[in-house]
Amino acid sequence: MIDNVLWLDLAVALGIGLLIGTERERSKGIDPDRTLAGIRTFTIASLLGAVSTAVNFWLLVVSVICVTVFAAIAYVVRVDKHPGLTTEITLVFTVILGGLAMSAPSLAASLAVTAAILLAAKEPIHGFVRGAVTKDELNDFLILAAATLIVLPLVPNEFIGPFNAINPRNLWLIVILVMAISALGHLALRLLGGRVGLPIVGLVSGFISSIATIGAMGERAKEMPALMGAAVAGALLSCLSTILQLTLLLAAIHRPTLQALTVPLILGGVSVAVYGLVVTLNSFHKNGTEMSQPNRSFSVKTAFLLAAVIALALLASAALKAWFGQAGLVFASGVTGLADVHASTISVASLAAAGNLNAENAVIPILVAFSVNAFSKVIVAILSGGKDFSRQVIPGLFIQVSAVWLGWWLL
C-alpha cells in the first residue's frame, strides 16, 4: 500500500518540475532554434528523480547519469546557437531535487524556489554584476568572504596572552564586523546616497557594535571628507542604538533596574538623537549635490587598527582586575566598560535579578560602564576619522553622557 506521505512527496516533486519548467518554457522561445527543454521535460525529470529514489537509490544514480549524458549530447549539438549551460545543468539539478523531495520535501521545495528565482532574474543579475559592481568592490567582497568563511573557523576560540585577556576569535569577529559595516555603508552610498545612507547604516549597525560603527564611519569620513556630516550622524545614531539595546537587555533581565534607569536612558537617547539630527540636517545644507562614490568598500587597515585598540582595552581591563582585585562593583564595571558596556550591564542586572543587589544600587555601576565605554568611542573616533571627525563626534558623546548623569541626578 502506498501511504499518504509518499503521495505528498511525489506531489512536491511534481510541483518542483512544474515550477522550474514554467520558467524555462518562457525562456526557451518558440522558433526552431529554441533551447533544450521546457515545462514537460523538467516535470518528467523531477518525477524521474522521485520515482527512482522511491524504488532504489542506485536507480537515482543511473537516472542522473543518463540525464547528464543526454544534456551533454544536446549541448554539443547546439553549442553554436546556445553556448550557455544553464538549462542543461538545471535539468540535471531538477532530477536531483525530485529525488531529494522523497526524503526532505521542504528543503527540496526551498531549493527549487531559489533556483527558479535565479533563473528568472537573469537580466537584473547580469546587469548588476557587469554594470554596477566594480573590480575593486568584487575584490573587497572576496576578502570579506575569505575572512568570514576561511579564516574565522581556523582562529582559536580561547583566552590567551597576559592575564588570559585576549580571545583571538572575538578580535577577528571585530575585524569582520568593521569590514561588514563599512561594506554596508558603501552599499547605502550606492543605493541611497551619502546624506541619507550613512545615518541609516549607523543606526542599524549600532545594534551590533557602536564602537565598530564609529570606526567604520570615521574611515568613511577620512576617505570622503565631503560626507563628513553624514558620517558623523551615522556615528552618533549608533550611540542611540546603544541606549535602545541597553533598554531591551534590562527589560529582559530585570525590569526594576530598567525602571530605576528610565530617566537617564531617556535623556541620553533623546540628547544624542537630537544632536545627530542636527548634524544630519546641517550636512544636507552643506552638501547640495551627491558626491562621487568611493571605489573601495572598506579598509582592512582600519579594521585591524580598531581590533588592536579593543585588544589593548581588554588587556588593560584584565590587568587592573588582577592588580586591584574586585575592589568594588563600580570599579569592575568601569574596567569592563572599556571594551563593552553590554557585558557590564548584563552582569550587574543579573546580580540585581538574583537578589544580590538592589535595583537602585545597580544604577551607578551601569552608568559608569556607559561613561567609560564612551571614552573608548572617543579614542576610536580620533584614530579612525582624525581631528575633523572626532571634533564633531566627541561633543555628541559628551552631551549624551552628561544627559545620562543628569537623569541620575534628577532622581
| Span between termini | 75 Å
Overall geometry comes to: elongated
Largest sheet: none
Unreliably modeled segments: 288-292
Overall pLDDT: 80
Helix content: over 70%
Q: What structural class is derived from the secondary structure elements?
A: mainly alpha
Describe the structure.
By secondary structure, the protein is mainly α. The chain has 2 domains: 4-128, no CATH class; 134-410, no CATH class. Helices cover 79% and strands 0% of the residues. It has 17 helices and no strands. α1 (4-28) runs antiparallel to α2 (39-55). It is elongated. The termini are far apart. Residues 288-292 have low confidence and may be disordered.
Short description:
This protein has helices spanning 4-28, 39-55, 57-77, 86-100, 105-120, 122-132, 135-151, 168-192, 194-205, 210-223, 228-253, 255-260, 262-286, 300-324, 329-337, 341-353, 363-410. By secondary structure, it is an all-alpha fold.
Topology:
Blueprint: H1 4-28, H2 39-55, H3 57-77, H4 86-100, H5 105-120, H6 122-132, H7 135-151, H8 168-192, H9 194-205, H10 210-223, H11 228-253, H12 255-260, H13 262-286, H14 300-324, H15 329-337, H16 341-353, H17 363-410
Helix pairs in contact: 1-2, 1-4, 1-5, 2-3, 2-4, 3-4, 4-5, 7-8, 8-9, 8-10, 8-14, 9-11, 10-11, 10-17, 11-13, 11-16, 11-17, 13-17, 14-17, 15-16, 15-17, 16-17
